[in-house]
Design goal:
alpha+beta, Arc Repressor Mutant, subunit A, SH3 type barrels, five-stranded antiparallel β-sheet, two-stranded antiparallel ribbon, globular, binds manganese (II) ion, DNA-binding
Chain lengths: 221, 221
DNA sequence: AATAATTTTTAGATTAGACTAAATTTACAA
DNA sequence: TTGTAAATTTAGTCTAATCTAAAAATTATT
């Protein structure tokens, strides 16, 4: 069994090796976990002794099969609880991450399985991220963002790649939430900002915002 | 804010001062928490510094108003989560305590209030224990046990005063669960064991078991 | 009241996880 | 290839929570 802290390190290493490639560097972990490199090194030794990571001094780390299993288990719990909070307790999508950071460490296999069933075995969390099933299998992550849609085309919002409450509330205010269908009118050449038609209103969003909105291209309205 | 450990100490002190009277003794806390008296003393100093308990060396402890508020908050969360596990996730009443011991430390006021609402503001947990409301107010604890019912009378089971899985599974096997109506046929003089009519079956239970079953006396069947 | 038993506290260690400062290794550029 | 910058590890502390063993205080018993 792992401590909360160990689980958080494993989850961080997992996420970092998803975005960039492995091996994951000490400093990257330290930055993501808001801690110091020296603390990370201490923990890496411990995780290595427990055979949760492969680690050679100065060479970065990768998760072992066992370590990845644990990490995916934590991610599964995190995302299932986020679904619970939004679907059953009516939280908004910008409020759930922080609470799920705590709930993801509750340690009961039966609880996770029953929660999954209670929620109807959801495949995606409220931010569009895939939920691993009991065996750790999950759908691919979304990878088409709004900035990649050709002008004149339609798209439906299916997720986000940035999870800060500030960003999510910003989208909420713009009525850019999951399921919303929009038309891409123009991508400004100068700064990459994007003009959209959403709910019959024309709006403008920055390139950065557009790139964090994940979409499915739609053939028709 | 308190650590998990501090919350557990406060909850234990609270429960001990409910059954016996205050002040609560160091050894009683140590026994209930499966730890050593020396560890308890250390923690008592810390809780005193945080003004969560009144404490004089060798004289035992009582919760301050603030300490009691925290303790009741933890109890509230524990019992709400137990209701959730039984009512929504179909756990049995003997499986929920251990999981609730973890969930009770999740730290989000909004979560507790929304969970309470989601569950329909329950007044009792799956073992018949009262659930404090948002202001810490709760119904009185149940205090009539099966051993106190006069022979020939009817009673309905409304709670238990012992929460071990072994005891709860024993009751389950005997079909003595909450809501069940029974007739008390005889209390044996020799050993205090009790003969009951439950679901048209005559059964015998020990005095100890009978005393841990909390009931409402019923006028008629 | 004196002594014995019980309870509680203190003293001194230990472990997990974190930190700062210093040393070491690796990477990169002149 | 050599020197410097960046990344990483080591060394030494710190705090929270625990422990054992010993000392002190309280309570019970003669
Ligand atoms: Mn999240
Ligand atoms: Mn999410
Ligand atoms: Mn319980
Ligand atoms: Mn209960």
């Amino acid at each position: 069994m792992q401590s909360f802290t160990e689980e958080n390190y494993l989850k961080t290493i997992y996420h970092l090796s998803q975005v960039n490639e492995s091996p994951v560097q000490t400093n990257a972990i330290a930055e993501k976990m808001q801690t110091r490199a020296a603390s990370v090194t201490d923990m890496l030794k411990k995780l290595f002794d427990k055979q949760l990571i492969d680690y050679k001094k100065y060479q970065g780390v990768t998760l072992t099969t066992h370590g990845e299993t644990v990490a995916i288990g934590v991610v599964r719990k995190h995302r299932l609880w986020e679904v619970f909070l939004v679907e059953k307790l009516q939280f908004r999508w910008d409020e759930v991450h922080e609470i799920a950071e705590e709930l993801e460490h509750i340690n009961s296999a039966a609880l996770v399985e029953r929660l999954d069933e209670f929620l109807g075995f959801p495949k995606r969390d409220p931010h569009g991220d895939p939920i691993p099933n009991r065996d750790g299998i999950f759908e691919p992550s979304l990878n088409v963002n709004l900035h990649q849609i050709p002008k004149g085309n339609y798209a439906v919002i299916i997720g986000v790649s940035e999870h800060s409450p500030a960003f999510l509330r910003h989208l909420e205010k713009l009525e850019l939430t999951i399921g919303v269908v929009l038309e891409l009118i123009e991508i400004t050449e100068y700064d990459g900002s994007v003009e959209l038609l959403v709910n019959n209103k024309k709006i403008n969003i920055s390139r950065e915002v557009a790139q964090h909105i994940l979409v499915n291209r739609k053939e028709t309205v």
